[in-house]
UniProtKB/TrEMBL annotation:
Domain Bap31/Bap29 cytoplasmic coiled-coil: residue ranges: 156-203
Keyword presence, Phosphoprotein: no
Domain BAP29/BAP31 transmembrane positions: 1-139
Coiled-coil region(s): none
Name the UniProt record assigns to this protein: Endoplasmic reticulum transmembrane protein
Keyword vocabulary terms for this entry: Coiled coil, Endoplasmic reticulum, ER-Golgi transport, Membrane, Protein transport, Receptor, Transmembrane, Transmembrane helix, Transport
Function: May play a role in anterograde transport of membrane proteins from the endoplasmic reticulum to the Golgi.
Transmembrane region(s): 7-27, 47-66, 108-128
GO biological process, one term: endoplasmic reticulum to Golgi vesicle-mediated transport
Length: 208
């Protein structure tokens, strides 16, 4: 195995170990600290940038290995059609089989390395989103239950809510008072109107 395919195999092994670490069940606080460090550390960011460059080279190796595999397969099929497989030349058959095996091995090696890199990236961000969702859920749960130290038990917010409740109660009382005053004024108006009609009717009768 050449040096670049050996490095690709080491990268694949590192990806497998990293994937096992990501999916390993850890306590929430430990996982939060670890993923917080991985997502915010500048050293990890530089390392990730270097890995992106290396994956570009792996993609080039994958394209080359895929092309070699197709070419060796085509040559093998052509040799079979020409009857080389029945000539008893074991050395030629072994040569074609070895070339086919190495081309397929290199294709699978580079392909799985690229595929696992995508899986690792997606898994990392899914777990990071899960941690953030759990944090938001914990804050929302504390807010709804009103535990000590939560946002709902803040003295300033409690005082503000009490002030709003008192203001609404005052407006309700003012509205009821206004209704009573309007009813009293309407009754007084009806009384004065009736009295005025009675007086006016009496005067009219006297003039008649």
């Amino acid at each position: 195995m050449t040096i670049y395919y050996s490095l690709t195999f080491m990268l694949l092994a590192a990806e497998m170990v990293t994937f096992c670490f990501l999916v390993f069940p850890l306590p929430h606080n430990v996982r939060k600290k670890v993923f917080g460090f991985l997502s915010e550390s500048p050293i990890v960011a530089k390392l990730a940038y270097g890995l992106k460059i290396s994956f570009i080279f792996v993609a080039i190796l994958f394209a080359d290995a895929l092309q070699r595999m197709f070419r060796v397969t085509a040559e093998s099929e052509l040799a079979k059609q020409n009857g080389m497989a029945h000539t008893g030349n074991a050395q030629a058959e072994n040569s074609f089989a070895a070339r086919k095996f190495y081309s397929q091995r290199n294709t699978y090696l580079t392909g799985f390395t690229l595929f696992l890199s995508l899986v690792l990236t997606r898994t990392f961000y899914l777990i990071l989103d899960l941690i953030h969702t759990q944090e938001e859920y914990a804050k929302l749960k504390e807010t709804t239950t009103g535990k000590p130290g939560s946002k709902s038990s803040n003295p300033d917010e409690v005082a503000e809510l009490k002030a709003k409740i008192a203001e609404l109660s005052k407006k309700d009382r003012d509205f009821e008072t206004l209704k009573k005053q309007a009813a009293q004024q309407a009754a007084e108006f009806d009384r004065l109107s009736t009295k005025y009609n009675e007086v006016t009717g009496a005067n009219s009768n006297k003039r008649d």
